[in-house]
Design brief:
Elements: H1 2-39, H2 46-66, H3 77-105, H4 110-132, E1 145-147, H5 149-156, E2 164-165, H6 166-188, H7 190-200, H8 202-207, H9 212-237, H10 242-247, H11 249-259, H12 264-282, H13 286-292, H14 311-325
């Protein structure tokens, strides 16, 4: 029984939260790696782009809720997401046309585009704060838990209860479907292959008749979809606060670089590497060891490698180690 309790404990506090968090980071990391791989610059506005898409989703969700619309156990935000994606894509194309395209046409160095993206980041963050405010905003309705801890205890007779939120299941399911569709698009369709060819060799792609304007537009459309859905899934699972999305920029970039920036599959796996690392290293294992060790050997301390205050330090440390020892990432990407 103690072994089962220890397994449930790890599932409840490490594995399920890490899978959910990793899925959210993975979508953001793929956003970063697509922009870097095709448009050739590090977009530091990633977190705030996700924030913008989530904000629009919230506004549409509130509007639908005011009309009495509901999906029952599922969040109304699922219906609002397509509208938010359209706004997000329009905003990204607007920013590209009036900001990024100037530097792209003039063949500016990537570092200059990266600096410009920081300006876009602050502008986007200001827009979000002005429209919806800096405070926490909750937009979840419907059933929050699929399995509740108390019900699980009563059903199994175990001391530990397993609680699974509907948002966690939704996050993992939507991420798998979305990433599968994206990989199919990139590897099987003519447009996807054109994007990969443009990423590998821009000059050769242009000689082959590939339209660069079309590639750029499609890249921003895909990025808009990833940013909106990734941001909404994070907001549903936790809550929406603009500054939180800004803070997520570090683990998102760490995930992209760990996996191999410029490699979408590597970015996808990198999200889970960062999520599991953060949660494994900041979890207090005292209760876990009390289940698997004899009573005389039970620890008195929390058995916590790092305080949760140092959660982002984990991402930063992994990022530095990878850049020092394997700058191309776990799966070879474009070296920074």
């Amino acid at each position: 029984m103690d072994i089962l309790n220890s397994i449930i404990l790890l599932l409840n506090y490490i594995f399920i939260p890490a899978l959910s968090y990793g899925s959210q980071l993975a979508l953001g990391a793929i956003f970063v790696t697509l922009i870097y791989g095709i448009l050739r610059f590090a977009n530091f506005a990633t977190g705030d782009m996700m924030s913008f898409g989530t904000m629009v989703t919230i506004l549409f969700t509130w509007y639908l809720q005011s009309l009495g619309f509901s999906l029952g156990v599922l969040p109304t935000a699922l219906v609002a997401i397509p509208f938010a994606i359209m706004f997000m894509v329009a905003y990204m194309l607007f920013i590209d046309k009036f900001v990024f395209s100037y530097y792209r046409v003039n063949k500016s160095p990537p570092v200059q585009l990266a600096m410009v993206s920081i300006g876009v980041m602050f502008v986007t963050q200001a827009i979000v704060r002005i429209i919806i405010g800096p405070a926490d905003q909750r937009f979840f309705d419907g059933q929050k838990f699929i399995i509740k801890a108390r019900e699980f205890k009563e059903m199994t007779g175990l001391n530990e209860g397993l609680a699974i939120k509907s948002t966690q299941v939704l996050t993992i399911f939507v991420t798998i479907v979305l990433v599968s569709l994206l990989f199919w698009f990139l590897n099987k369709t003519k447009t996807g292959k054109s994007m990969k060819a443009y990423s590998d060799n821009e000059d050769l792609a242009l000689l082959s008749g590939i339209d660069p304007k079309r590639i750029v537009m499609i890249t921003w459309i895909i990025a808009g979809i990833l940013a909106t859905i990734g941001g909404v899934l994070y907001g549903l699972d936790k809550s929406f606060k603009p500054f939180t999305y800004f803070n997520n920029m570090l683990p998102i970039f760490a995930a992209a670089i760990v996996g191999g920036i410029g490699n979408p599959f590597g970015a996808f796996l990198g999200g889970y590497v960062i999520a599991f690392s953060e949660i494994f290293l900041t979890y207090a294992y005292k209760k876990f060891f009390s289940y698997i060790l004899p009573e005389s050997m039970e620890p008195e301390s929390l058995v916590q490698l790092l305080s949760t205050d140092y959660k982002f330090a984990v991402s930063f440390s992994i990022l530095v180690i990878v850049l020092l020892y394997r700058p191309s990432g776990i799966f070879k990407g474009k070296v920074l």
